[in-house]
Structure formats: C-alpha cells, structure tokens
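Hi support team,

I submitted a single chain yesterday and got back a structure, but I'm not sure I'm reading the token output correctly. Could someone confirm the output below corresponds to the sequence I sent? I've pasted both exactly as they appear in my results page.

Thanks,
R.
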Amino acid sequence: MLDNKVMHYLGSVSLEMYLAQMIAFRVIEKLGLLYVFGRGWIGYICACIMVVVSLIVFVVLARHFLNTLEIKILKNAKG
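Hi R., thanks for writing in. Yes, this is the structure output for that exact sequence:
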C-alpha cells in the first residue's frame, strides 16, 4: 500500500519539507488562510492540507531552480 510513486517521491523530499514546514505555516498564517474554515477539526485538517501542498510546491520549485542553477554553473566552468 505504501510502495507507490507518491510515497517514494514524498520520501525523497521529506527532509526539505521538514526544514521548510515552519516557513510555509507562517506564510499561510500571515496570508490569513489559517482559520478560513474555523478553529475546529475542519480548520485544523484544512490548515494541514494547505501546509503540505505548499511544501510540495515549494520543494518542486526549489529543486527546479537549483538544478537549473547547477547546470548553468557547470556550463560556465567548462567553457
């Protein structure tokens, strides 16, 4: 059940997600999205989902940016 592509991907980015979780939470809080659905269980679950989704987007964008930067640096070093 846990041996699928989604779980493998989340396992490969779990450290980055752990390190960025408080930043994502604070951004959501500052945007006023934390208590959109109230302060009960629904609000808590929605806040968790927002944080996880924002973390995945952040990790994908950061990896893309860093890979592009690495390729440019390697090209400049060679030529």
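A quick pointer for reading it: The chain has a mean pLDDT of 90. Let us know if anything else looks off.

Best,
Support desk
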